[in-house]
Each structure stands twice: as C-alpha cells, then as structure tokens.
Amino acid sequence: MMKTIYQIRYWLELIALPTFAFLVFHMTGHGVDELLLKNFNFDEIFENFAGILLLIFFVWLWHRPFLKKWVPCAHTHCAGEKDKSITPHIVAIIALCLHFFPEAAVREVLFENFAKKEAFIGLIGFIAHFFVDVIVAVLISSYWQKKSHQILSFLFMAGIWILAYHTGRTFFDFIPPNAQGLVFLVGGFFLAMFVHMPHKPVSACGHDHHKH
Asked: What are phi and psi of 145, to 5 degrees?
C-alpha cells in the first residue's frame, strides 16, 4: 500500500514540476514588473529575464539546509520505521500547514487575473499538487503509532487547508494595489519550494528519504 502511494506521488510531482516552475517564473517576473519596471519603458524581455533569475535563485534557496528542512514534501519515512525524535515530524506538520495560506492566495489571484491559458496551466499544477499534499499529510500522519492519533493528525491538517482556502479567497482584498507586486514575489518564493525532482518510489527501507 505504501509503495503504491509513493508511486502515485511520483507521477503527481512529475506533472506538477513544470507547472510550478512556469508559475514561479511568471509570477516573479510579473512582480518585478509591478514593483520596478512599470515606471520605465523596458521591453518584456527584462521581465522574463528577471523571472528566470528569480526562479533559479528561489529554487536554490529552498535547497539550502536552513530552508530545506521546512519543505513538507522532503519529509517521508518507511512504513514501520519510527524516528527517535518527534521534532522533524512536528516541523513537517507546521511547514505543511503554513504553506497552505500563501498557496491559497496565489491560486485565487492566478485564476482571477491571469490569462485563460496560464490559469488552465496553473489549474493542472494545483490539482496535482493538492493530491501531493494529501499524500504527504498521510505519510506524516502515519508516524504516530495509534490509529486515532493518525486520523486526528490528518484531520487537523485538512482543517487548516480548508481554513486557508477560505482565507485565500479574501486575502487580496486587504492588499493595496501598489503592494501586489511584492505579494507576487512572496508567492513565487513559496511556490518555488515545490520545484524539485520528483521523489522516486520507495522500494526498500533503510535509506535516507529526507533528501530530494
């Protein structure tokens, strides 16, 4: 069962990877344009160049040890193996829940303001990533030994996702128009945590699965 979950997760991440890379590129370039370039007569090539540079930089940042430990999808373990320390699992739950909020806001503004083609591409990525979130929540919850604790852990994360979903729908109502460029950059930064090589399905225990 766990092996099947890992395989499904692999294909979902494979679908989401190019989509999120495109979204980070587009959002960060648009954010730079909103903050800096709209007052100048720069060609669109500068916006694209800024998007590419920030995509590379943000992805690089999320692969540094001080940030990588906060990436929920980097946290897995083999079924039946229990780490001695509870801290990594608590950190993973917190990180997973925290990323729901900027993700919800970005998803909402994407579908409302971007062109239909980009919204459709984003929709594919967010649907795939939603199921990745579900799988990661299941994997993290499976750490707890009691079935009741596993269910409560998953329901807690599901509740936070629902809260973030409804919060995200009104998030931009409180953001001044001149600050939305910064929100695009922050949103692109958070989405960049999901731009990584998909996890290969786990075939055996005894390996370090906390690495991309």
From this structure: -75, -40
Q: What is the DSSP secondary structure assignment for residue 78, as one 8-state letter?
A: -
- pLDDT tens-digit profile of 49-89? 889 999 999 999 988 988 887 776 555 544 444 445 677 67
Copy the structure tokens of residue 206. Answer: 């005894």
Q: What share of the chain is helix, strand, coil (3-state, %, to 5)?
A: 75, 0, 25
Q: Give pTM, 2 decimals.
A: 0.61
Closest C-alpha among 99, 64, 82, 199 to residue 140: 82
User: Distance (Å, rounded) from C-alpha 52 to C-alpha 102?
Assistant: 21
For 52, the token pair is: 């590419």
Cα distances (angstroms) measured from residue 178 to each of 8, 14, 64, 121, 166: 41, 35, 31, 26, 24
Cα separation, 74 vs 18, in Å, equals 18
